[in-house]
From TrEMBL:
Pfam families attached to this UniProt entry: SecG
Membrane topology (UniProt): Multi-pass membrane protein
Alphabetical UniProt keywords: Cell membrane, Membrane, Protein transport, Translocation, Transmembrane, Transmembrane helix, Transport
Keyword Zinc: no
Entries under PANTHER family matching the protein: PROTEIN-EXPORT MEMBRANE PROTEIN SECG
InterPro entries named in the record: SecG (IPR004692)
Transmembrane segments: 54-77
Record protein name field: Protein-export membrane protein SecG
Described purpose of this protein according to its UniProt entry: Involved in protein export. Participates in an early event of protein translocation.
Length: 123
């Protein structure tokens, strides 16, 4: 299942980059007024109005693919087994608790737990 997640994530990222590129290539609504007064955009690669139709349709198709890959990634990620508790609780429970006396305190001859008690200050 891990390879499927990787493939869908790769397609998702490539589609996102393609959408960004297509949106940046499209003309705004005010760009059509310039073509009416002879700005020369009517002689473009796709023709006078061909680029708007081609780019907008391609963007719509890629947006649909992006939406589907988003849903697929959410489904694949939620398919993992559920655990009772949080990640921090699992990390605390998985590490053993050490009750050994520290080596420095043992070498000095201090009793176990001597460093953990607060010292009393005489009045």
């Amino acid at each position: 299942m891990n390879w499927l997640f990787s493939v869908v994530l790769t397609v998702h990222i490539l589609v996102a980059l393609a959408i960004i590129g297509l949106v940046l290539m499209q003309h705004g609504k005010g760009a059509d007024m310039g073509a009416a007064f002879g700005s020369g955009s009517s002689g473009s690669l796709f023709g006078a109005s061909g680029s708007a139709n081609f780019l907008s349709r391609t963007t719509a198709v890629l947006a649909t693919v992006f939406f589907l890959t988003s849903l697929s990634l959410a489904y694949i990620a939620s398919d993992k087994p559920k655990t009772a508790g949080s990640l921090m609780q699992e990390a605390v429970q998985s590490q053993p608790v050490s009750t050994a006396v520290p080596a420095a305190a043992e070498a000095a001859g201090a009793p176990a737990g001597a460093g953990s008690k607060a010292q009393e200050v005489p009045k």
